[in-house]
Amino acid sequence: MRASLIQIAVDPDEPVDARRARVARLVREESGHADLVVLPELWTVGAFASDLFAAESEPLNGPTHTAMAAAARDAGVWLHAGSFVEAEGGALYNTSLVLSPDGELAASYRKIHRFGFDKGEAVMMAAGEDLVTVDLPHLTIGVGTCYDLRFPELFRGLVDAGAQAFVVPAGWPALRRAHWSLLARARAVENQAYVLACGTAGTHAGVEQAGHSIVVDPWGETVAEAGPGEEILRVVLDPAKVTTTREQFPALKDRVLGLATPKRG
């Protein structure tokens, strides 16, 4: 399976509609290069531009969905369209879309772990509740978003739901770039799964982005890693490698679930 991670630079001087059109063009240009295309988190507004969240929010079937569905259909690719600010029932969500090659919505995921420590996303957006997997040809992906990467129990749940690869769009700050690559490798190693982590480039809301989108294989080896700027990272995944890794080193079967509450001495 061929995958392309499009590391988008979020420039605050670029109008959202213009960026949406530009990204749709980039997706279309991956026709013939990829079976799966992945975009970053909140690339429409910027993950740290919380002052724009409400103004740029849209319904699930809004302009981002419409533009990305058309791009996926034109390119003939599976598209993880990153995430956008979804408005529904008076609440905002950090919502990801997965679109099929015919442009149909295969799944949506509302980010469960919201970043901000009682500021920004953590107070402005509601939390999702559902784990989401999607069956692609020959590969089942589990979906997480950015800060989710710090919570291994989410990815264990996705493995239990059948995930063989994790797709993680992000708007990760450059200040903590070392954590970004470390956590991507850790989630791959402990779950014996591919990790496709796609971040943003540039600077928005005064926060420099890490870039360095990364693909890690089920042994924890880095397949490819981008630099800090806008870039398209193209890789080839071998779905059979997930199976062989889990057979050759069957650590997942040794999990001990339902551990008792620690006793106090």
Automatic annotation (TrEMBL):
Keywords: Hydrolase
Pfam family, one: CN_hydrolase
CDD domains per record: nitrilase_5
Keyword Hydrolase: yes
A molecular function GO annotation: hydrolase activity
CN hydrolase domain ranges (all copies): 1-239
Family: Belongs to the carbon-nitrogen hydrolase superfamily. NIT1/NIT2 family.
Name of the molecule in the record: Putative hydrolase
Source organism per UniProt: Streptomyces venezuelae (strain ATCC 10712 / CBS 650.69 / DSM 40230 / JCM 4526 / NBRC 13096 / PD 04745)
